[in-house]
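User: Sequence in, structure out. Go.
Assistant: Echoing your sequence, followed by the structure tokens.
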Amino acid sequence: MNDICFEILEQNDIGAVATCDQCDQLHVEIGAFTSVLNKDAFSDICTYLTSMIPIINDLLVKTPSSEKVLIPVGSNNFLSLTESEFYKVTELFQMAHHMLCARNILQL
């Protein structure tokens, strides 16, 4: 295993957002889902999630297990979240985005 060092920008009980010392990407873990995103894509997803808050009731879809919010993460692939999980993921992204912005300001 190589020696990668992660700096966690934000973490809560639903997941974590971190940067690594070997790339300029953001590593996002939400439950068993893991993704590596560039900063622009991360910002776009954060904006998308935040814009969905006012219409959350319109986004709930009946699935075999319960009502879920389906967040597209690729062609025909979705992050399936309960309403509570959706809010936790949105908060995770928003706080990580704030930390990323603050870190960028401090590095100027």
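User: And one key feature?
Assistant: The longest helix spans residues 83-106.
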